[in-house]
Please model this.
Amino acid sequence: MEKFTNWRDKGTGIAPFQPPTTQKEAIFFNKSIITNIIFSIIYLTRCILLIPVLILSPFINLRLLFLTGFTSGRIKIDYQVNGVKRSQLNKDPRKYHLQKGNLYVINYSSVLAAIVLQYIAQDNRSIKYLIPSESNDLYELTLLQFINFTMNGQSLNVTQYGTQIKEISNKDWINYTWCLFAEGTCSNGKSILPFQINKTSLELVVDDSTSICSEIIPVTIKVNNSLVTPLGGSSWRLLWSLILKHKCLAKIKVHESHLLVKEMDALDGVRESLNDGDKYKLVSKSLGIREKRTFVEEFRK
Ligand SMILES: *[C@@H]1O[C@H](CO)[C@@H](O)[C@H](O)[C@H]1NC(C)=O
Ligand SMILES: *[C@@H]1O[C@H](CO)[C@@H](O)[C@H](O)[C@H]1NC(C)=O
Ligand SMILES: *[C@@H]1O[C@H](CO)[C@@H](O)[C@H](O)[C@H]1NC(C)=O
Ligand SMILES: *[C@@H]1O[C@H](CO)[C@@H](O)[C@H](O)[C@H]1NC(C)=O
Ligand SMILES: *[C@@H]1O[C@H](CO)[C@@H](O)[C@H](O)[C@H]1NC(C)=O
Ligand SMILES: *[C@@H]1O[C@H](CO)[C@@H](O)[C@H](O)[C@H]1NC(C)=O
Ligand SMILES: *[C@@H]1O[C@H](CO)[C@@H](O)[C@H](O)[C@H]1NC(C)=O
Model:
């Protein structure tokens, strides 16, 4: 791995672009005979269920499968909200789900984050996926575009996938749930990359004179380490591992909000919150999209 030391953070030792090394699973060999038989039957059943999908695969949009039943039931959601007790949350979870008219900043390490958001938004048709480009402009993506961007292009040039947002009107603001992936590119979840957007460029889009956007709410979505997608990859493989292997466990935490107006560097605070408040484990601001691009080139050699 010495080859990639240029992309390892000097201070923390974290290599934020390195894809996970997936462990081969030995489900058939480490359990009792009965368990093995049961596992085999489950495994076979799932394989049989997959046959029609395989036959139809040239004709269907694989990425659409993510949306339809395929991931449902395979993702287990563990939802927490800062300052709300579990018992209170369990009584009426929807009440605490992501709401329209709010700006959420979410850590970006897996394509599954976008799908998880569908389950934890009060109105899942109102979600706007926002990703900043390398030049600090804001782009809006649909769920399909988000999946395409994350899985196809090593998430390096969002301008080819989304549409640029020049301005958001007050009327639009209250009708959508704004989910910003401020890092602009996918990491492996070991840290939070530098944000590709600053306060100035954010305020150009959301006009704060009318204070429609006064606060930012950090949301961390943590999925199994084996399911992070820093360099994109095959949607098939991801689906396959979700269907044939185990469920995905998504731990979601909604953190305390940061006031955009009051705090001088609200976005730095947000970045720290996304890293579970640990600023010493943040990678240096010099590990952004440009460095990821050189990493990808080197990695492919
Ligand atoms: C999205 O919302 C609709 C309507 O509330 C609901 O039926 C559907 O299950 C939701 N989708 C997901 C992925 O949660
Ligand atoms: C914010 O980003 C814009 C666009 O890249 C840049 O012109 C501006 O100097 C940045 N502002 C700060 C405070 O860094
Ligand atoms: C995915 O992205 C590629 C390259 O940008 C584009 O050609 C293709 O049309 C996109 N597909 C979908 C379904 O958006
Ligand atoms: C991203 O794509 C756009 C449109 O194809 C292109 O003009 C731009 O140069 C690309 N940016 C980078 C950094 O490659
Ligand atoms: C916002 O939502 C309301 C209620 O759902 C709807 O009546 C209105 O037309 C929407 N406004 C815009 C600008 O989309
Ligand atoms: C999201 O952030 C949390 C907290 O920093 C981190 O533990 C997690 O690995 C990150 N992302 C994912 C997808 O796991
Ligand atoms: C994800 O993690 C959960 C809990 O640790 C585990 O039960 C599950 O098998 C894991 N799934 C995958 C695909 O690794």
Notes: Residues 63-300 form one domain. Residues 82 and 255 are 5 Å apart (CA to CA). The chain is about 30% helix and 15% strand.
